[in-house]
Each structure stands twice: as C-alpha cells, then as structure tokens.
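Researcher: We are triaging several targets before committing to wet-lab work. For this one, the compound of interest is adenosine-5'-triphosphate. I'm pasting the protein sequence and the ligand SMILES. What I need is the predicted three-dimensional arrangement of the protein with the ligand bound, expressed as structure tokens, so it can go straight into our comparison scripts without reformatting.
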Amino acid sequence: MEPQTVFQAAPRGRFITFEGGEGVGKSTQMLRLAERLRAAGVEVATTREPGGSPRAEELREALLSGRLKRFGPLAETVVIASARADHVDRLIRPALKRGAWALCDRFIDSTRCYQGAVGGVAAETLSALEQVAARDAFPDLTFVLDAPAMVGLERARRRAGQGAAPDRFEAEDARFHERLREAFVAIARAEPGRCRLIDATQAPDTVAAHIWDTVVRRWPELEPRP
Ligand SMILES: Nc1ncnc2c1ncn2[C@@H]1O[C@H](COP(=O)(O)OP(=O)(O)OP(=O)(O)O)[C@@H](O)[C@H]1O
Ligand SMILES: Cc1cn([C@H]2C[C@H](O)[C@@H](COP(=O)(O)O)O2)c(=O)[nH]c1=O
C-alpha cells in the first residue's frame, strides 16, 4: 500500500474583533482582553481599522480627514477595502499563522454598517470586497458593544478634549449614529454564532468580565482546571 501523505493544518491563532458605534469602549475593551490573554500566556497582536499597517494608516488619514467624502460611500468603501487588504496581508494573517491571537478595533462589520446600512452601498458589493480583502481572515468572534449613540459620542468628545474637531464620521448627525447603532445590533442578532452583543453602558470592569467569560467559554483551554 502507498504511504499516505498527511497534511497537517498549520496552527492558527484566533481572530477577535470589537465593533459598535463611536466611543462605546471598543479600544478600552480590546486592550483589557489583550492584557488578560497575555497573562494567560497567549501571544497577542492588537490593531485597528481603518489602519493597522503603515500604508493602511495613510488611507485612514485620508478617510477620516473627510477629503474623500465628496467621492461618496462607494469610493470610501473601496479605499477601506484597499487598506484592509494591506492590513490583513501584513499584520493579521502573519499573526494568525504564527499562532498569535489578533484583536482588532473595528473590521468588516463597521464597513457593513457605516458604508452599507447607512451609506447605501449594496450588500453584494461589500461581500465581494470582503472576500478580496479579508480572504481567509474572517473573525472567529466579534463583540458588538451597544450603547445609545449619544452616550458613545459624549464619551468620544470627552476623550478628545474641549475644542477638538470631530472627524469625518463623528461629525454626522444624531440620526446617522442611531441608524448605525440599529445596524450593529441587527448584525449581532443575525450572526449569533460569531457575535456577542454586550451592553456597553455598564462599567468598564463589568463589560470586561462579560467579555472574558465569553472568551473562556469558547476556548476553555485558557483556564485549565487542575
Ligand atoms: N464602560 C465605560 N463607561 C464609561 N466610560 C467608558 C467606558 N468604556 C470606555 N470609556 C471611556 O470612553 C472613552 C471612549 O472609549 P474608547 O476609546 O475605548 O471607545 P471606542 O469605542 O474605541 O471609541 P472610537 O469609536 O472613537 O474609537 C474613553 O475616554 C474611555 O475611557
Ligand atoms: C473600519 C471602518 C471604520 N469606519 C469609520 C468608523 C469611525 O468613525 C472611523 C474610525 O475611527 P475610530 O476612532 O478608530 O473608531 O472610521 C468606517 O466608516 N468604515 C469602516 O469599515
């Protein structure tokens, strides 16, 4: 009998994303989770979108400055997808390949909500661009942090300090931000296998505890029993 070649899957880290409207606490919670994972002995890469790699950060600056707004949501979507392709190729995929966990502040769901649900870009277009940019790097788990739009915007304003100018999206009106909130909640409800909806009006420690509990239930090896 011919000896069989056995292909072993390369070890792959986990990919967790944090989503939601402005100022709901995504970066805070991403950093808190990273800390706990590192304490559990996991190599972690934290990153963000748009951005995360030097070239993608250049595109982030163009997007958030508002210079691209006049080209419309489709053009912004294509720029975000270009930034994502570079970010995934240079940072996320290499991290996952070496077995590290990648934690990302915003990813495909932000595009689906900002450019899709609110911007009006067709779902098929978004899906095609996701396949091109993310390819094999889709999130294993997504935390959707939910709070009234005004709560998040107020937190973001306080963080930026008095007199700081809002960016391209923060400057949109209250209805824009409420529609975003509805769109994020709809995604969390439509994809319960991947997404966890978290009440982000709770204290940071409480939110962090819910997140850790979810992660440990999903990957119990993080807290081995004696
Ligand atoms: N649960 C919370 N309760 C009250 N304040 C919070 C909470 N979580 C974060 N904050 C504070 O709110 C501000 C925004 O938090 P953070 O930067 O984590 O939000 P974000 O969702 O990443 O924001 P953005 O969408 O602008 O990137 C920060 O000053 C942070 O300290
Ligand atoms: C990934 C992504 C982001 N955006 C918007 C959402 C925010 O207003 C900014 C990013 O700023 P943050 O302070 O880092 O949250 O960009 C978007 O419109 N579409 C996207 O795909």
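Researcher: Any quick observations?
Model: The first strand starts at residue 15 and ends at 20.
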